[in-house]
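Usage

Read records sequentially. Each one opens with the input sequence:
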Amino acid sequence: MSLITTHVLDASLGRPAAGIAVTLQTGDGTPIAAGITDSDGRIADLGPETLPAGHYALRFAVAEYFAASQTPAFYPVVTIDFTVRSEELHYHVPILLSPFAYSTYRGS
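and closes with the structure output:
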């Protein structure tokens, strides 16, 4: 299992957000891995099994997701910056998404 996983829920529709491109990056923006959310809004294999401690970011390309349903949206990209403190922990970084807002939390 990869060290980093994610899950996107479309809070405005009450369902998973499938088909969102997500990129795992270093803190300076260098891409490490990429994936697309599945039918359950998840990416379970995003990146390597270990990463050194440091600053990372997940970049969610949400403009295309909303455009597919002709939904006007404010944020074309959602970027979540976070810190990996230990190679031994799993980091689940989900987002709750709507056309004009998003929230995130440290999942399990």
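Summary fields computed downstream for this record:
- The longest strand covers residues 54-61.
- Strands lie at 4-10, 15-16, 21-26, 31-36, 42-46, 54-61, 77-84, 91-92, 95-98, 101-104.
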